[in-house]
């Protein structure tokens, strides 16, 4: 994966320039429903008419974009990360205000089924496979042109009764793991950017957890799982995923050993997921975090923050607690930004409305970037700002002005908009040429070309001087193959791929 500040921006500019001038993008920015631009409110109208490629209808003519309101994924991409995303699941799909933000690909470029892909729901009784719910998550991601992180295969929790009660032998449990993985990974073959193949195999002191898997198979359950996953989807990135490995302790060392153990047995491990279930005031510094990440990337692994939240230990949080939480979020995201090979960040629900924390750790909570009313917190502002600062070279403080107004507009105006924006850029170096309009409102999906066309040079915006392209930067293997015929349908083809080794769309979304 290539990481270079500005590469994304340069690639977009280069790919966009043959089609439309920056000036003409200026009229397009508010087409994304609900995105507040500058101090105004989003007021997109019109309709998408493209059946392939993209079409954008817009009615307003703002010339600047509040950088921090662009969305975390777009900002992450501007840093060369592959994604900023969130966990979600089908039990929440009836909450339209919540889904408005889930569906916003500028905010979240990758989704993770929070529960529905686990062993219990996917194979509740042996050899009876159920995929209706995770298929719906996949469908949402597909419609939004978002990627999918798939989660999880061999884990000691949320297991069906047959796994926990059968009197397994070494041979029968091996076969059961292999069958589960072959079916589940096989079903989603091509759809998953990555799979969390083994989850939480370790105790906090770094010894192996006494799961049914470890008791029956010893550490062999690890290579058994990774070998089966590699066979079922040769292109999905295969991850070991765990929590409390952020502190450079015995558990961190044990996670490194797991990678070596699986590889020594002939298995493929591509990445390690740092769940990032952190606590306010007890989170490593940005420098400490990046140092831990580098221990893993030194093994030719990618890393990602896969389940980020930072919980408050007393509620409701004071302003000081909120400020500390913002610092802690920035330490995590900044630590990732600072490490070549950290590919992205996923939050474990973006809103306190649906966080798992209060029920699991009573008395704690308020752990997410958005509060229960879907209003972004200081932590959101801080994360958006650190991403913007890194991408543009402007100080983080410069991007903070206006974010409150921008995001209030973003949330509030979303339900009244009827515009549709079809964005042909799937961020994988492929122009997929499909529209995403449906229903009365689609999503705030600013085409990348607009993003470039609207920098204004004002405080809080990408300064024009920071975007200066001389050549395209597509070093991935992706190719642009848009079939759209609208004016900007082809504006972002393969050039936006910053050369990650997964370029060329070897995964579905
Ligand atoms: C969604 O459905 C669930 C279960 O049917 C229900 O408890 C919840 O209140 C619904 N949420 C909304 C926003 O309608
Ligand atoms: C870490 O492991 C070492 C031995 O490898 C042991 O001496 C030490 O007590 C362990 N620390 C913790 C906190 O478990
Ligand atoms: C490590 O933690 C596990 C689980 O809490 C415990 O059972 C085990 O005794 C611990 N081992 C050591 C060496 O501390």
UniProtKB/TrEMBL annotation:
Catalytic activity annotation: Endohydrolysis of (1->4)-beta-D-xylosidic linkages in xylans
Subcellular location: Secreted
Signal peptide: 1-22
UniProt keyword Signal, yes or no: yes
E.C. number: 3.2.1.8
Domain GH10: 61-386
Matches recorded under Gene3D superfamilies: Glycosidases (3.20.20.80)
Pfam families, per database record: Glyco_hydro_10
GO molecular function, one term: endo-1,4-beta-xylanase activity
Start and end residues of each stretch annotated as Disordered: 36-55, 418-440, 466-509
Keywords from the UniProt entry: Carbohydrate metabolism, Glycosidase, Hydrolase, Polysaccharide degradation, Secreted, Signal, Xylan degradation
Comp. bias (Gly residues): 37-47
Pathway: Glycan degradation; xylan degradation
Similarity comment: Belongs to the glycosyl hydrolase 10 (cellulase F) family.
UniProt-recorded name of the protein: Beta-xylanase
